[in-house]
């Protein structure tokens, strides 16, 4: 009864990404200009993004070619393995079949290079010299630093202050790849100075860091901005995960009943889920699939947020997008899954949740760490704290199968390893972590500050 | 010009290990009993090791079957990738072709599970309940903890004190896998207490930790001892690396001129080199190959040690083996490549060095960290500090090719990633690390204490 690996040969590395916009039953609500509240034009986005990514953001084409320089770098660690977790199944004594796609084999240990590489590539070929970005847990910052290094671009990373201090090793990795790392909120931007004036002890948030990174990018035509999640083109690039998983499940002669991913901005979830969900929307699935998004109880965007137009950042520099949001001024507690601390959610995922196509739930962190250790003790891989949310849900669904005496096929995304997160595990095992619940009053206040035209 | 991955399909995962003892031009000198100085018998080793491993230790059989429960676990991450480092070649502007075998994809991030898994397996089937061991950098301890978890064995790890404090995250990982970790020298053993009485501030050494682990194992018939390097059976298990690499170089239609590995106890070096060296000894190589062992200048066993009978531990509990040694009382400075701090060397490697079949060199740590960053900046993977010694040598050989205008094919073992070693990189980049050279007087003193019958 051992764990089985499904290795896809390199000839089966997908040649295209999958764009779910081609298969949506109703189109995405338009993105609005922050001042005029009118639908934005490509020209509005040009200061921040290269043409190719702006086109991908709105493209309705179902499959989009992966450029060969990107493909050649993907090949360094892709296709990633798909595993059948038979040791975990045995430990849980469940009739369920549990599969996981493992993205921790990338050089930075997570799924983030899947989009960092093409983003750096498209910027490079359009003459950009420098990229700015934000990072929470540091996985995205490391990945953009890596990609910038491959394509000879300067990279400046605004790192959420709580993670900057909690995760010095992630910072060291970015610096090893040649990036400059700044704790956010910082004194280097107007947005950062404003926050610090009001809250000198601010531990930061992704919304603040995004505002800082955008402010810098907007000042210089050779500097653009890169986002690690949320946007359509980011989710698009991650679909290489699900496209591979479809082929690998064919090798296993199996079809999923349930597909699970953790959600912060939504990119690893979308990466695994969208290719399956697209097939389902086109009526090509053999059986109905439940798609399950799992978020932290301390930042419950999908389960406690409002579906409304909001800014992507705290400084109100981004366009307005319709999404599930806790309000752009919401700053979650400094819990350990730093990659899941965003106030908003990818508009594509929010839209699909509104259409009733995705189920959402929120879990407190202690039960997620417990699940991570259960997983490690049978599968041997210690997951990142973010990924533990998906592990928790997969285990709970498998235990439900046991209770009901039904075998279901469960697939989840193990989006990264926890080798950079050992302090969180030390704190958990020492009993130092608590379940920081969301504060309903703070969310209500943040939501009250949403743009008023809604 | 991108890095190329040679992926071996799972059908090509070797079914056997390769035993170089079958091909040695002259046999290994016998292992001697610590008291009688007579060749030991299998019965002498029974308190410490299971029968199957004692048999492998002396076997003259060329190929030894990998048991299927071991094979099934290997399959979780093996075959590991072989890469052609074309981005590094380009950065160095060298005519050399550089290949590296990457063992960092295992659950613990190094090559160590290759032997931890079979060791735990053989102990389990012979009824053992508990394993004791030592660990330097923590890679071996993590791997035995992982293996113990898979086969339901208790694991107790004596961790060299300097690493115990430098690497709390490795310790946390062992504990996450359910192992008990004790800083060595400790008060729990007579050997540890004796050292502490004499040197209360001892930072420990592998030799001391081995003595402690052996003492505990010898006291209880259900407890055995596991060693992470040095012994013949450990090197045997690692040959899966080289056997895969042979197949992968065939895919690349290439043959190596130079094969490089770093050496502490010798296991990752042997794992890559022995299958190639064996073919060479049998006259089956197409062209002559240089085999190069690289050790740290601060613990220069092969380049400054004596080829003599010595104990494997400081407490003189192990049998006497003929090897290159700095003397069992030698305690190297607490430099960062904790996995390379052993006073001795695998007898098989020592023997082959004596036969003139392996070239040896020693490098100070700063130049190795510099090489590691050069490697990371082109290949994207940040190596473990141990592996940086092999990277340094590979880069130097590639630069020599450039100087001489000759293209050679260089293969090296990238035995682990550096995700647990970021503090070392932070210290290096902050200019806090120094080149701690060996102290000739200390070595002379330690060598003076070698068993006198030599």
From TrEMBL, chains A, B:
It holds the Pfam family PALP. Pathway: Amino-acid biosynthesis; L-tryptophan biosynthesis; L-tryptophan from chorismate: step 5/5. It comes from the Bacteria. It catalyses: (1S,2R)-1-C-(indol-3-yl)glycerol 3-phosphate + L-serine = D-glyceraldehyde 3-phosphate + L-tryptophan + H2O. Keywords: Amino-acid biosynthesis, Aromatic amino acid biosynthesis, Lyase, Pyridoxal phosphate, Tryptophan biosynthesis. Its cofactor is pyridoxal 5'-phosphate. Tetramer of two alpha and two beta chains. The beta subunit is responsible for the synthesis of L-tryptophan from indole and L-serine. This is Tryptophan synthase beta chain.
């Amino acid at each position: 009864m051992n764990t089985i690996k499904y290795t896809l040969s390199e000839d089966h590395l997908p040649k295209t990404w999958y764009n779910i916009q081609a298969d949506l039953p109703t189109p995405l609500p338009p993105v609005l200009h922050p001042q005029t509240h009118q639908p934005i034009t490509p020209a509005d986005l040009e200061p921040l993004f290269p043409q190719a990514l702006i086109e991908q953001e709105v493209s309705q084409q179902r499959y989009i070619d992966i450029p060969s320089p990107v493909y050649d770098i993907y090949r360094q660690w892709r296709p990633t393995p798909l595993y059948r977790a038979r040791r975990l199944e045995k430990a849980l004594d469940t009739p369920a079949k549990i599969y996981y796609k493992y993205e921790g084999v990338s050089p930075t240990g997570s799924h983030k290079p899947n989009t960092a590489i093409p983003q750096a590539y498209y910027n490079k070929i359009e003459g950009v010299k420098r990229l700015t970005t934000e990072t929470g847990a540091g996985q995205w910052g490391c990945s953009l630093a890596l990609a910038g290094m491959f394509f000879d671009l300067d990279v400046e990373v605004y790192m959420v202050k709580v993670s900057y201090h909690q995760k010095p090793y992630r910072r060291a990795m970015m610096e090893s790849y040649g990036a400059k790392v700044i704790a956010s909120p910082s004194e280097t931007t107007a947005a950062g100075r404003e926050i610090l004036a009001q809250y000198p002890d601010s531990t930061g948030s992704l919304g603040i860091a995004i505002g800082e990174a955008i402010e810098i990018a907007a000042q210089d035509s050779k500097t653009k901005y890169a986002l690690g999640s949320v946007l359509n083109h980011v989710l698009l690039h991650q679909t290489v995960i699900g496209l591979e998983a479809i082929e690998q499940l064919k090798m296993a002669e199996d079809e999923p009943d349930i597909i699970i991913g953790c959600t912060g901005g939504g990119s690893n979830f979308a990466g695994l889920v969208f290719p399956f969900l697209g097939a389902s929307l086109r009526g090509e699935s053999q059986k109905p699939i439940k798609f399950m998004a799992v978020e932290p109880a301390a930042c419950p965007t999908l389960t406690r947020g409002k579906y409304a137009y909001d800014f992507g950042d705290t400084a109100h520099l981004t366009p307005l997008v319709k999404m599930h949001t806790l309000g752009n001024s919401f700053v979650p507690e400094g819990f350990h899954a730093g990659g899941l601390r965003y106030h908003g959610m990818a508009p594509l995922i929010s839209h699909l949740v509104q259409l009733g196509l995705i189920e959402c739930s929120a879990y407190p962190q202690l039960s997620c760490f417990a699940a991570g250790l259960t997983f490690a003790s049978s599968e041997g891989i210690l997951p990142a704290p973010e990924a533990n949310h998906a592990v928790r849900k997969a285990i709970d669904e498998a235990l439900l199968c046991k209770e009901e005496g039904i075998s279901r096929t469960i697939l989840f995304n193990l989006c990264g390893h926890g080798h950079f997160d050992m302090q969180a595990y030390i704190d958990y095992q020492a009993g130092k972590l608590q379940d920081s619940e969301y504060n309903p009053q703070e969310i209500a206040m943040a939501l009250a500050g949403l743009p008023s035209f809604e």
